[in-house]
Amino acid sequence: MEHYDRRESVFDLIRSMSKAEKRNFKLYAARQGDPRESKFIILFDCLEGMESYDEERILSRCPSIRKEQLPNMKAHLHRQILISLRLLGVQHSPLLQLQEQLDFARILFDKGLYNQADKQLDKAERMAAELEQHALMLQVTGLRRQVYECKVSDEMTHFAAASNRSIMETCDKLERTNEISNLAVRLYSLHLQLGYARSQKDLDLLNDYFKPRLCVYSRHRLSFTERFHFYQAMTWYHYIRHNFAYAYRYGRAWIDMFEEQPCMKEVMYDSYLHGYSRFLEGMYLMRKYGLFVKAIEDFERESRITGSLNENAVMISQQVLFTARINKCILEGAFKEGLWMARSVDGYLRRYAKYLSLYDRMMLDYKIALLYFGDGNYAKCMEHLSGIIAVKDPQVRRDLQCYARMLNLVASYEAGIDHNLDYQIRSVFTFIVKMKDMTDMKRELFAFFRKLNNLATLELKKEFQVLYERLKPYENHPYERRTFYYFDLISWLKSKITGRNFGDIVRERFDELVAGERKRAAASSRS
Question: What mean pLDDT, rounded, does the chain reach?
Answer without folding.
Answer: 89
